[in-house]
């Protein structure tokens, strides 16, 4: 078969861009760093959203929607926050045909505007905790964009909560990290993320503690898959989020924020993709099984339709590809590129023997299966291969992570994977030295 | 009971704003005309989205996501389009700490950017029709904002499709109008919309035909609930959306666009609301039944929990309100404000008689029901009251619509409702005259 993508071993970043283009996942937008998310990738994002949203609701947060436009003055109220975000802001100066009296910022994140309204809505301890989340687009001007990973505009969910005590805020930020993000990433994305804390230098602008989930990509590098922040009383003081306690005193609340983005699509590609394209975890895949009419023939379409209906009845997300006028080889390459977990090929020859061919994208096997056994075979494969993807990502991470004792060894090991090193051997000075060599301290 | 809202008969616009504030549906945002959609209203929007999205997928359109930021030059390519939208644009002139070479427009709608990419993606007649939709926020600078109805930023879905022939584009624009919008509005929102065409003066900027669904509000005025446009070849020519036909010739495609917005939440309030608050159609309601512990007492909570579990098992979206420390009267007023279709009140006295009280928001009835009959009673009420809301909206519309023969009579009738008048008696001059008297020709 002709080579479809630049092999990963040859040029990993190029392979990544090739895959996104060939699998029709995204295009670059006309404004620097923006992207068009095409249906193949957007369907993945919809499934990510649904699974995350269910977990967020399970954690008792309620969805809301706050404005895209934030007065520039809001950002300045929290000193570290404005310093962190200023270089990335997009600013509206004209609207309705006139110059604006105060410039408007296109939200890079929404701590400030949530803070403003939390202050209005919270009176007493009875109003706490206040647990909010929104699904939205945000803008951070990006000088070195990479599709899904670093884009000027991206889609995300951002949670914002207010609590009566530091302990409650801390517990909730942890709960989101583990029961929403980690659970989703491990069990749906089949990505074995490592939870931990960021160093002071890598913290979110305005946070007192940033917790992260880091995943190892196919090239041994790390990607931050989601973060959950304790904001202490920084935003509560800047926006005057106070409540009357049970004892009658007026107290500042403790707030958190947490986010995960379309970057997860990039992580998914880089963890599970291979030289033939994406491999989607079956539980996530918008299409789990694609039935393909290999070529027209006696009873072929009828058999394909029957299998489609049986699989649908068994709860499998199935699609029928009966475009017999397009060469089968090309359609098979496309299905591999898109990462559809199982293909069921129905053609005259196998059909004559009472079989269809079941091709599994994740382990690459392909074998004839009696028509009557297809449903059992496919549902079994979907279950097995979900676990297989997680296992192989875990094996790669273990293989490429070494325990070292010194900063020098850590920097060397980071050329091909991850190094686990005692923080006492690094420290803030060591972190600066490592950063100078393009090595980052990902998590504590 | 104390008066909660300004009565509709006294001041309908004020009643509307009161309801939105008291039911905690939305707040005004800090930037002119923006709004914060609070959880009570956002939950309604989520249910609207889910029901619409299923119908859009049924109509074979695929979801995608296009950038918020559009180069200013794109809008100028279609002459009527730029003329229509220029006065409402918000413009980004600075980003990443620098002044931009070309100003960026925050999308007021996305025909232009969809057009640009459709031109790239379409080669041959085999690529048609191309049926896309996106859920997104858009910005149109609003000088006279009204929550949900006219806001500077709003949420919506916008569909964009390209077809090989004018007839196919026309059929699809009609299909969306009827099988997505009208079906959703009548059967879920219980709003008897009237489909029709807009006059040339009221058409979407760049369309050759705009179809609309108009609904009558509680004050007899009309609200546009959704529109579907035929764009002819205007955008195909401006963005060079061409395809190679089966005969081998290169042809311009025919495009459509169609949208519905968070304005539907405003319509819902104004059609079904009464002087006690919102009344939600049961099929739409995020919470269909609320079980309320009237006050603490022997076995009360246990009985309430049991009813909750039984209703849940029967497929009812149910919530338990056991906040016995908050006065029951206040909680009941809140439930009425929010429009929850059924309340089930569980208190010691009724419980001693083996009953709960079922209060129906839509017809205002309240009666004791044996515990064993509650599930049947509630599921029956939800079905009956969905129809009841539709019937009463229909009755109002019929009562307030008169058939007239002259423009003068039409203008007079429009003071209290709608007038149906032959277009031959109006014409373009008559339309201008009516507009001068604050009367609009809504649909043909
Ligand atoms: Zn304060
Ligand atoms: Zn052209």
Layout: helices, strands, pairs:
The structure is a homodimer of 444-residue chains.
Chain A: H1 12-22, E1 26-28, E2 35-37, H2 39-58, E3 62-63, E4 69-71, H3 72-76, H4 79-85, E5 90-95, E6 98-106, H5 111-121, E7 130-139, E8 153-163, H6 166-187, E9 194-197, E10 209-216, E11 222-230, H7 234-239, E12 242-244, E13 250-252, E14 254-261, H8 263-272, E15 289-293, H9 300-313, E16 318-321, H10 328-338, E17 342-346, H11 348-352, E18 355-360, E19 366-370, H12 374-399, E20 401-403, H13 407-413, E21 418-420, H14 427-436
Parallel strand pairs in A: 3-7, 15-16, 15-17, 20-21
Antiparallel strand pairs in A: 1-2, 4-6, 5-6, 7-8, 8-14, 9-10, 10-11, 11-14, 12-13, 17-18, 18-19
Helix pairs in contact in A: 2-6
The structure holds zinc ion (ZN) (2 copies).
Molecular structure report:
Two copies of one chain form a homodimer. Chain A has 444 residues and is α+β, with helices and mostly antiparallel strands. The first copy, chain A, is built from 14 helices and 21 strands. Chain A has a seven-stranded mixed sheet with strand order 3-7-8-14-11-10-9, sandwiched between helices. The longest helix of chain A is centred in the C-terminal third of the chain and has 26 residues. The radius of gyration of chain A is 25 Å and the shape is globular. Strand 5 of chain A pairs antiparallel with strand 5 of chain B, so a sheet runs across the interface. Bound molecules: zinc ion (2 copies). One zinc ion binds next to loops of chain B.
